[in-house]
Amino acid sequence: MPKFKRNLLPELLEELEQTQVVIIFGPRQVGKSYLLNQVAKKLKTRHCYFDLEQPDDLLKFEASQSEIQKFLLSHGATIFIDEFHYIKNAGKVFKALFDLGKRDSTKKVKIFASGSSAIEMHKHIQESMAGRLHSYRLMPMLLDEYLSADQHRLSTDEYLIYGGLPEVYEYSGEKRELYLRGILETYIQKDIKSLIKEENISSFNKLLFMLAEFQGQIVVLSNLARDLRVSAQTIQSYIDILEQTYTTYVLKSFSSNLSNELKKSKKYYIYDLGIRHALLKNFISLKKRQDQGTIYETYALHYLISIANRANTDVFFWRTSKGQEVDFIWQKNQILTAIEVKTKFEMQSLPKGLEAFFRAYPKTSKAIILFAESKIYDEYNEIEIKGRKVFVIDIKESHKYLKQILNSDQ
Length: 410
Description:
The chain has 410 residues and is of the alpha/beta class. It is built from 16 helices and 13 strands. A hairpin with a 2-residue loop joins strand 12 (380-385) and strand 13.
């Protein structure tokens, strides 16, 4: 299996010098256990690792809160706990150990833990852990992480079809497809079945397929409810579960209350492209696909979210009642950047959606156009159109430039 360099690892290694409890959240099979093990390998002091999906490890935590605390204190200065939510009152255990270490340095314990959904954060860490907790979100690999493989150079087109779950690249051919379908089935059995009623599993599965099919389009929940013959409230509850288990990202529309803007519209994106294509049962090559635009748009969103997660920034889309649209609006410190994704881009004028946005928001600092194919533009281009600074960038090379460009006005 290729070994990938994850962008989050340096931040986690810095946490070794801090006292706070560290929790990594993210979907199943995204690489949380791998990262915990990578951090553990850097330690020269005594430490231990527990995977609570292993019965033998879980059995050790089926005890009272005080007994668990004593048990962890006896196992070294650094404790790694995979899938921590299996611990009853995990938040109370973590809080008590943190506070004990603050009072008595000889009993200081550093905890790294992982969890597969935001639901676990709210359910198991209910009491205030302000100042005691650092949480990180690990999502499927970005393109630059994928290209960091130590064994061989991988194909970018391959990544856009099979997605960012690291273990998928341990396989080849049909075995990759079987792996992704297996993850999908396991996810529904493990993470979803316990959260929704048994009789609703079928409608939930159909909703997943519809979201994958309509990826990147404005979706009206009442229409989905009608098609699935359930209530709009039920559809919303499903969406909430998908969002909180890091399966689906909800992209909201940008508006400052101009009369012609869509104000409450939303788009939905399955986070991992491999899982999306498993839902659609479609793994044909990128060049033969009818949904290339959706795939490139999804990749761009993944990267923007990864930057925004650390930059305290919002990402939206923009659309008017006349159909004028911009794929993404990046907002930081009230400064706006408009971002368009184009499968092919040859023109030397602004796309109509960007022109409309600049008219509506003349203080917008700049625009970025990400293209998949172009005969007239290089990998990176900085040009001026009608007095506007426009960056035209090959989307497959965008990880080299986007972060710096988006933060250049800050």
